[in-house]
Write a structure and sequence with these properties.
InterPro entries: YgfZ/GCV_T_CS, YgfZ/GcvT. The chain is mostly beta strands and 277 residues long. The protein has four helices and 16 strands.
Length: 277
């Protein structure tokens, strides 16, 4: 197992933990049984993504979030402002997060494996098996290449890794998060729900993710060009084993035949399936 220091565990505890998560996050938390998890996120009122995470219902009074890339202290501080009279405590613990490119004996699909000292998640997809462990991963090694491979796996399966420059910039539809079943248009209100639902039901989603590879390193925020015309923007990028890949937000009907970044041609690739939960 190798360490994933860019992943963090946040826990919601208390009588109102599940109800609070249902009211704040974009997935249908109420549909989860104890021990099940789903992809989810937190949106600003204008429908832009603040953070993405795996959300686990441990039990009726405990919700665990595994944040990807977001600052846990800042996330907790922002979320704490909406607690009001809800009986819920939001905390970051001492538990660490680690990963392994192998299957877990008890975690499968949306069913997590829960132990007294942590949780195991099946993060695998069509690209192979993966297990994420949140707990006292005392034997996890520091392995930068393994972390890059992990991030590349995320990107190739359509899970964007948003650095600070991309926070509050994209809607769930623009990030094609429907592929991961990460948001709901049918449950009750949550921040940004009106924007998400209106975009869905009026058929106004005009942009989505495209996976590219390139011979040169790519960075989030770079413009994807077609000659002198801007097509879209790189939302997430990674280099693993010398391979440069990125997820870009482009018009759904855009031709990518001549797509390039800083003069470097981009080669579109199909997104892999199997990561939806």
């Amino acid at each position: 197992m190798f360490a994933l220091p860019d992943h963090h565990l946040v826990t919601l505890r208390g009588r109102d933990a599940a109800a609070f998560a249902q009211a704040q996050f974009m997935s249908d938390v109420a549909a989860l049984a104890d021990g099940d998890w789903q992809w989810s996120g937190w949106l600003m009122p204008k429908g832009r993504v603040i953070a993405l995470f795996a959300l686990l219902r441990v039990d009726a009074e405990t919700i665990a979030l595994v944040l990807h890339d977001a600052d846990p202290a800042q996330f907790v501080a922002q979320l704490q402002r909406f607690v009001f009279r809800s009986k819920v405590a939001i905390e970051t613990g001492a538990l660490e997060v680690g990963g392994a490119f192998e299957a877990h004996l008890a975690a499968s699909g949306s069913r997590a494996a829960m132990a007294t000292d942590g949780f195991a998640f099946d993060f695998g997809g069509d690209g192979g098996a993966r297990t994420l462990w949140a707990g006292p991963v005392l034997e996890a090694v520091e392995d930068g290449e393994a972390r890059a491979r992990w991030a590349a796996f995320d990107l190739t399966h359509g899970l964007p890794r948003l650095d600070e420059s991309q926070i509050e910039k994209w809607t769930p539809q623009q990030l094609s998060l429907d592929r991961l079943r990460a948001y709901s248009v049918k449950k009750g209100c949550y921040p940004g729900q009106e924007i998400v639902a209106r975009t869905h039901f009026l058929g106004q989603a005009k942009r989505g993710l495209v996976l590219f590879e390139c011979d040169a390193p790519l960075e989030a925020g770079q413009q994807v060009m077609d000659g002198d015309r801007a097509l879209g923007t790189i939302a997430s990028a990674v280099t693993s084993s010398g391979q440069h890949s990125a997820l870009a937000v482009l018009p759904l009907d855009a031709s990518t035949a001549a797509a390039a970044v800083d003069g470097h041609p981009l080669r579109p690739l199909p997104l892999r399936d199997g990561l939806a939960r």
